[in-house]
Write a structure and sequence with these properties.
Biased composition (Polar residues): 1-10
Strand order of the largest sheet: 2-1-3
Order of helices and strands: EEE
Radius of gyration: 16 Å
Number of helices: 0
Region (Disordered): 1-28
Shape: elongated
Largest sheet: 3 strands, antiparallel
Number of domains: 1
């Protein structure tokens, strides 16, 4: 299956989470919502979005 997306909303990022310190060190790779305080200690690699309006389509329909 494939999706045809009509609207979407950015909700956060996926990336490397660092521990706050004088010499920050990576602790995890995870998804962080925009409203999390940890967003300031994250180096983003991908945007996370919520699909608001979409329809399912078969591969032959594309």
């Amino acid at each position: 299956m494939a999706l045809r997306v009509q609207s979407w909303t950015p909700t956060g990022v996926h990336g490397a989470l660092y521990r706050p310190s004088h010499t920050p060190e990576p602790v995890d790779a995870t998804g962080i919502p925009f409203d999390s305080p940890a967003i300031h200690w994250t180096i983003a690699g991908q945007l996370i979005v919520r699909l608001d309006r979409f329809t399912l389509v078969g591969p032959a329909e594309e």
